[in-house]
Amino acid sequence: MRVNRPLLFPLVLLFFSANPLSAVGQQPTLSPVASPTPLRIGKPYSSETLPTRPALPAAQAQSPVTFADITSLAGINFKRAPSFTSSKYLLEAMGGGVAMFDYDNDGRMDLFFTNGAALKDPMSKTDLPDKRDPKYWNRLYHQKADGSFEDVTETSGLKGDGFSMGVAAGDYDNDGRTDLYVTGYGGNYLYHNNGDGTFTDVTKKAGVGGGGWSTSAGWIDYDRDGRLDLFVGRYVEWDFEVGSVYCGEIRAGYRAYCHPDNFPGRCQRQIWDCGAGRQSLRRRLRRF
Questions:
Q1: Are strands 149-151 and 139-143 parallel, antiparallel or unpaired?
Q2: Which domain holds residue 248?
Q3: Where do the DSSP E strands lie in 17-162?
Q4: How far apart are CA 250 and CA 238, in angstroms?
Q5: What is the 3-state secondary structure (H, E, C) of the chain?
Q6: What is the model's pLDDT at position 122?
Q7: Assigned domain for 67 exists
Q8: Where are the alpha helices (DSSP H) in the chain?
Q9: Is 200 among the domain residues?
Q10: CB 164, CB 217: distance < 8 Å
Q11: Residue 15 banded pLDDT, cuts 50, 70, 90
Q12: From CA 266, how far away is CA 268, in angstroms rounded?
């Protein structure tokens, strides 16, 4: 007879999905070259597709709770590095994710940020984004006793690979230490917390690399067996060849980022733990 174990919740589950609308407001860059003659034309963003701005709320009494921006004072200087090209790849317009979790069990919350990667102009179908330059590394900040943060990325093993987007934090192997699962374009990565301030990439061993373009993820014990399971949210069927479709006005300097509707959606993925820290891809959920 099966005995249900208590439901385990991940310590932190923070992830950010893609939002290409952030690039809509960019002004076109004029170019002296001749007008392009694209082979494939797609649907761009336009003012008609943007959500309307809600009306401002009525004036209210000042809240007794206020916040102060102490980012710089706390030593957090992370900036997501852009890699813009004249090809206007949809990937360029994406944001990143952040996780707040106590990776060294000292009782203080630490921060992890995902970052992009360098893109060539143009990229071939088989090219992968390049993360070797330190400005494209994912970043881990350790919180010190005085409330300030120290960048410990270089020794942590969390510089990352590829174009990172989302992150989910949870103790997938029940060893008392919080691990990280990072999503992005070209593959996802599972990092095991070694307990000494470093992380090891165990993606292949765990069988959770996936492929294509994943945006976000979440840990949850959906079958109440005492082991965390993994849900991965994915985006669209896309690569640098498919993504070379031209959107915008057909004249020099007016190429725009394409609307996601130009590309079919990907299936979500559900992965569950089969014991001994081994994850197994077992089911595809509905398309979105």
A1: antiparallel
A2: 83-273
A3: 98-101, 110-113, 139-143, 149-151
A4: 23
A5: CCCCCCCCCCCECCCCCCCHHHHCCCCCCCCCCCCCCCCCECCECCHHHCCCCCCCCCCCCCCCCCCCCCCCCCCCCCCCCCCCCCCCCHHHHCCCCEEEECCCCCCCCEEEECCCCECCCCCCCCCCCECCCHHHCCEEEEECCCCCEEECHHHHCCCCCCEEEEEEEECCCCCCCCEEEEEEECCCEEEEECCCCCEEECHHHHCCCCCCEEEEEEEECCCCCCCCEEEEEECECCCCCHHHCECECCCCCCECCECHHHCCECEEEEEEECCCCCEEEEEEEEEC
A6: 95
A7: no
A8: 153-156, 203-206
A9: yes
A10: no
A11: very low
A12: 6
Please write the tens of the pLDDT for every residue from 220-257.
998 899 999 999 998 999 999 999 999 998 888 899 99
Q: How far apart are CA 76 and CA 112, in angstroms?
A: 11
Q: Pairing state of beta strands 279-287 and 179-185?
A: unpaired
Q: In 3D, which of 259, 271, 174 has the Cα closest to residue 214?
A: 271
Are 10 and 227 in contact by the 8 Å Cβ rule? The answer is no
**pTM, 2 dp:** 0.80
Tell me the C-alpha distance between 136 and 128, whole Å.
14
Does residue 33 fall inside a structural domain? no
Q: Is residue 148 part of a domain?
A: yes
Give the total number of structural domains in the chain.
1
Mean pLDDT of the chain: 83
251 phi, psi to nearest 5 deg: -160, 155
Closest CA to 53 of 17, 96, 90, 21: 21
70 DSSP 8-state letter: -
